[in-house]
Write a structure and sequence with these properties.
The complex is a heterotrimer of chains A (405), B (232) and C (429). Chain A is built from twelve helices and ten strands. With 405 residues, chain A is of the alpha+beta class. In chain A, a hairpin with a 2-residue loop joins strand 2 and strand 3. The two termini of chain A are 36 Å apart. Chain B is of the alpha/beta class. In chain B, 33% of the residues lie in helices and 26% in strands. Classes of the chains: A alpha+beta (405), B alpha/beta (232), C alpha+beta (429). Chains B and C meet through loops of B and loops of C.
Chain lengths: 405, 232, 429
């Protein structure tokens, strides 16, 4: 028992009283551990964080109607099936043809707050409509009618009397959802037309078909058409990987009768491709950086231990067996490794947090298991790094070490 | 039976015969000095007797056991159990206190005992400096710690390599006085030195030259006290 | 004597010097690899983002406003088309090198034997072009629609002899009309008819699932639209937009001459659009925001991420080197104490140590640089299946970094040495 006490006394003495060298060793180990834990945290968090970025590509799931149209209750029911932390945004759309200056224009009504989330790539010159009576017009529509933000525009709609004019107008949906035939009004009905005076708040630039539409709030559409709100399509942006998305979609299609949930292949597939590459990149970089850092730690430890050849020689001269010398130095190394690892994992988390805040503007999830992992890894690396120089020092003839410089 | 007996011991480095068929006997309780000019083989002899190095040929009987052919780890055990070493450069572990340095020898030998270590320091007159670090001690004090460290395990032989080489006269006297006390207690002392004053105190002096025993002198009027040749 | 001392130091302490050189080599290889990957990651991710398809759409000037807006009739009322023979010009614009892929579309109305109306779209699948520059390009929907899932059969190979009588059918249409691979479908267009053999059935997860895709010639023959093209989708590698690009996108005329130059010579999506409009008669090229904008965002984030990781690893490497240099210099305190004792000035000791370490650093740095290029290529090949292009800029950056880091690494050690009192060292601390 006494012997063990002396063992610890020696180790603590060596650690505490050889301060400058120990600081060097500790610093080296902490850096290694910091890089290990920092990079691993980033590696595990990148898909989550990047997925949020990929939501820029817009909706990756759409609800289409199994029947004519989707009723709002069904959408609520379906939305409840999606974990709320994964649902980035949801925007139901309703399409109808209205008239501006007696010419037909496809009008879309949606929840503007949701649309802003599901279509973050929409570039709005001006503002999104916030309240009823406000409208956002596509770039092409704006050009045709010479509209600018702040200008007023009157949309008319002939209720009940509409006739099908020509084949179904093209499905007004950029992701290619099917929607039912949009109505076109007839020219004869003038007197009975509903109309609303809108203020243009913004011009929409998407580079797609949306530039040919006008966007208004759902209540305005209800008022204008005089028809109760039903949806043609509902766009959702869900932050999940392809597999999870598929499960969610299947579940919704199965359990909600009026809704057929589909994935937007272009978005989901491509996201998987790119994310896989990205994660592979970070992984490989992590591995290389780690390998190099660990070697760096090892060389520093080697230098620190090599310095003590003389002391090793003395201990041998005093009758210490190789085993007990290795045990003592390893003991020191392990304590250093553990302390450095602990310190490093804290620093690493701080680093990962800084990266995350800077790159993704969101905080990182703490992975508690990374702490023991980092500590174990740094203990192992330190132990190994100490072992090599100690072994070679232990094999040296004590007489030579003590005599020579 | 002699405590230590070297029979035809040679140590050859390449073409250099550091020791050339040396025969020495050391009796238990004897105080022996080994002298010689630089390069005469003193250090080689000291390393071989101290089980720090192996002879190229010959027999080394310690307590009747031939240690010449023992393995490195067996030699370690012999150093630990039978020999106390004192070096010219002291060789104290810098980050351990005086008493801890003494305990280090106990630690490798058997069980560290702080009380005993303090007593050993008391014997060399350093009890009040026990908790100082080597850097806070003077050369003489450091060497006294080394003496305490060497005697703590009651070794069969205390082997001192130029123990006073780095010390002034006053400290030299203190160390020699310590040796005298050890001798009185019955410890076998082998002191390697090139200082005639230190050598003369011993009971017997062996002078080496070119790796061979040149001659031997016996100190007829041995007192164990150092006689300084004072220059006027 | 100075040189001799340094030479001796190397000879005698070659093991320690080797350790320092090795660590510096590690640091320098890390810096090289990370910098190379970081600088190239934009291009690489850009390549990967090709998966999202075209980011520029080119349509005839008139339809861009009228046709799509009055898309009430089934026919192309205005009859505005792009010219097929101008397609090659897209690869001649200033940023031709950034045009990775493009494909034309021409849609003809047709009907099946049972009277059902279908849209038959002619496009490129894997159209092979030999460019005037001597390069070759395989362009078409096979790469621009990478998300299409081929449910059965395969893509049309344009190089095949019978490619003009092959068709690819959307999954929705195939299900409705009970068409399967190998079937022959008879389509009648306004100006011609054709027997098409179904080469593949695809699931695009969108409105394309209701279409039949054929080669450009086949579709043109059906609709009597020889040499005409509806639209072109272009995939270009672009630089994320900044203020200048946004200003230019609104009206290139509002820029000053130098701004215009900058804008024109930067691969903004707007300047590439502008240049396409210059070569294709009566065309409007616009950015597909969904792709173009998101791409910019993701690129930016990835690059920022890589930069930060690079900085971290640089700090790691720097501290590692500093540490080792400090440790190895401290080890020599005795030697330096002696030098001081025999009258060496601080300056000469500093000079000696610095020269030694710097010599080591040069050797280590150069070796590390080459090792780092190797690491960068490993990353390139295993992640992106293509080499990381080496930027000459990396060399000076790494050189300066290694030099600075090594110097900084010497500072604590040298300060310690200068404060060293020779007596302490020589008398066993």
């Amino acid at each position: 028992m006494k012997k063990r006490k002396m063992y610890f006394r020696m180790i603590t003495a060596s650690l505490l009283r050889r301060r400058s060298r120990m600081v060097i060793a500790l610093l080296a180990i902490s850096i290694g551990a910091m890089i290990l834990s920092g990079l691993l945290t980033i590696y595990y968090d990148v898909p989550r964080q990047m997925r949020a970025q990929f939501r820029n590509y817009g909706a990756n799931m759409i609800f289409t109607a199994t029947g004519d149209s989707i009723i709002p209750e069904d959408v609520d029911k379906a939305a409840a099936l999606i974990p709320s932390d994964k649902l980035v945004g949801m925007a139901p759309y309703r399409y109808d043809t209205v008239r501006i200056n007696d010419r037909p224009v496809m009008a879309a009504a949606t929840d503007m707050k949701g649309a802003e989330k599901t279509s973050p790539f929409w570039k709005v010159d001006g503002d999104w409509p916030a309240q009823s009576g406000e409208i956002m017009v596509g770039k092409n529509v704006a050009e045709t009618y010479n509209l600018k933000p702040g200008k007023r525009v009157t949309c008319t709609f002939a209720p009940e009397k509409e006739e099908e004019k020509g084949p179904a107008a093209e499905a007004g949906e950029n992701q290619g959802g099917t929607d039912q035939a949009a109505e076109a009004t007839t020219e004869e009905e003038v007197v009975l037309d509903n109309y609303i005076d809108f203020t243009v708040t913004g011009i929409l630039d998407t580079g797609g078909k949306e530039e040919n539409y006008v966007y208004m709030n759902l209540q305005d559409m209800e008022e204008l058409t005089g028809k109760e709100t039903v949806y043609d399509i509902c766009e959702l942006s869900v932050s999940a990987n392809a597999k999870e998305l598929e499960t969610i979609a299947d579940q919704i299609t199965e359990s909600v009768d009026g809704i057929n949930a589909r994935l937007v292949k272009r978005v989901t597939q491509s996201e998987t491709t790119v994310l896989t590459k990205l994660q592979a990149l970070v992984l490989l970089v992590t591995v290389i950086v780690l390998a190099l850092t660990m070697i760096c730690v090892a060389t520093t430890m080697t230098a620190v231990v090599a310095e003590r050849r003389k002391e090793i020689g003395l201990r041998k001269a005093l009758g210490a067996s190789n085993k007990s010398i290795i045990a003592e130095f390893m003991g020191e190394g392990l304590v250093l490794g553990a302390v450095g690892g602990l310190l490093g994992s804290i620093l690493g988390f701080v680093f990962a947090q800084v990266v995350s805040m800077n790159v993704f503007n969101s905080s990182i999830t703490l992975m508690p298991w990374l702490v023991p992992l980092t500590v174990i890894a740094s203990v192992l690396v330190t132990g190994l790094a100490c072992l090599i120089p100690i072994r070679s020092a232990v094999d040296v003839d004590p007489a030579l070490v003590l005599k020579g410089e | 039976m002699s405590l230590l007996e070297l029979k035809n011991v040679s140590k050859i480095y390449g073409s250099l015969h550091a020791l050339d068929h040396v025969n020495i006997k050391v009796e238990k309780g004897e105080w022996l000095a080994i002298m010689g000019p630089s390069g005469s083989g003193k250090s080689t002899m000291m390393n071989i007797i101290g089980a720090l190095d192996k002879a190229t040929e010959g027999e080394i009987l310690l307590d009747g056991v031939d240690i010449a052919k023992k393995s490195a780890s067996a030699l370690t055990d012999i150093r630990r159990d039978k020999i106390g070493l004192i070096f010219q450069q002291f060789h104290l572990v810098s980050y351990l206190t005086a008493v801890e340095n003494v305990m280090l020898a106990q630690y490798y030998h058997s069980v560290p005992d702080e009380k005993e270590a303090l007593e050993a320091l008391d014997r060399v007159g350093l009890s009040e400096r026990a908790h100082h670090y080597p850097s806070q001690l003077s050369g003489g004090e450091q060497q006294r710690v080394c003496v305490a460290r060497a005697l703590i395990n009651y070794p069969e032989i205390i082997l001192a390599d130029e123990p006073t080489g780095n010390l002034d006269e006053a400290n030299e006297e203190i160390v020699v006085e310590l040796f005298r006390k050890l001798h009185e207690d019955g410890t076998t002392l082998i002191v390697v030195t090139h200082n005639p004053e230190v050598a003369e105190v011993a009971q017997r002096t062996i002078v080496l030259r070119n790796g061979k025993v040149d001659h031997e002198t016996i100190n007829e009027n041995f007192t164990g006290k150092i006689k300084h040749i004072t220059l006027q | 004597m100075f040189v001799r001392m340094i030479a001796k130091a190397f000879l005698r302490q070659w093991k320690k010097m080797l350790l320092i050189a090795f660590t510096i080599a590690l640091g320098s290889s890390l810096a090289t690899a990370m910098l190379s990957v970081m600088m190239d990651v934009g291009d690489k991710i850009n390549q990967e983002l090709k998966a999202y398809g075209a980011n520029i759409k080119v349509v005839p000037k008139d339809t861009s406003v009228l046709n799509e807006l009055y898309d009430v009739g089934g026919e192309n009322i205005t009859g505005a088309y792009l010219k097929e023979d101008e397609l090659g010009k897209i690869k001649t614009i200033f940023w031709a090198f950034n045009i990775v892929d493009y494909t034309p579309f021409i849609t003809a109305e047709a009907s099946l034997d049972n009277g059902d109306k279908v849209d038959v779209t002619g496009t490129w699948f894997n159209h092979h072009m030999d460019l005037p520059t001597g390069e070759a390009l395989d362009a078409g929907v096979a790469s621009l629609r990478s998300w299409w899932e081929i449910k059965d059969g395969d893509w049309i190979d344009e190089q095949a002899e019978d490619s003009s009588s092959l068709a690819m059918v959307g999954a929705a249409l195939a299900e409705k009309e009970k068409i399967s691979v190998g079937d022959t479908i008879h389509v009648t267009g306004s100006q011609g008819e054709n027997d098409l053999k179904v080469a593949g059935i695809f699931d695009a997860g969108g409105e394309e699932d209701d279409l039949i895709y054929v080669t450009v010639d086949t579709a043109q023959a059906l609709g009597g639209l020889d040499g005409k093209i509806d639209s072109i989708e272009v995939l270009a590698l672009t630089t994320p937009d900044n203020e200048l690009a946004e200003k230019a996108a609104k009206d290139p005329g509002s820029l000053s001459v130098s701004q215009y130059e900058t804008w024109y010579c930067t691969a903004y999506v707007s300047s590439i659009c502008y240049q396409i409009e210059e070569v294709i008669t009566d065309s409007v090229a616009s950015a597909v925001r969904q792709v173009a904008d998101s791409e910019g965002q993701i690129l930016e984030k990835t690059q920022l991420l890589m930069i930060l990781i690079t900085i971290l690893s640089m700090i790691g490497a720097a501290l590692g080197i500093c540490n080792l240099v400090t440790a190895s210099v401290m080890e020599r305190s005795q030697e330096i104490g002696l030098m001081k004792a025999i009258g060496a000035h601080n300056r000469s000791i500093t000079g000696l140590i610095l020269t030694e370490i710097m010599c080591t650093a040069v050797i280590g740095g150069v070796l590390g640089f080459f090792a780092g290029m190797g690491f960068a290529q490993i990353v390139g090949h295993s992640v992106f299946n293509s080499a990381i292009s080496m930027r000459p800029m990396v060399i000076p950056v790494v050189a300066v970094l290694v030099a600075i880091v090594t110097l900084i690494g010497c500072i604590p050690a040298i300060r310690m040495l200068l404060n060293l009192r020779p007596t302490e060292v020589l008398h066993g601390r």
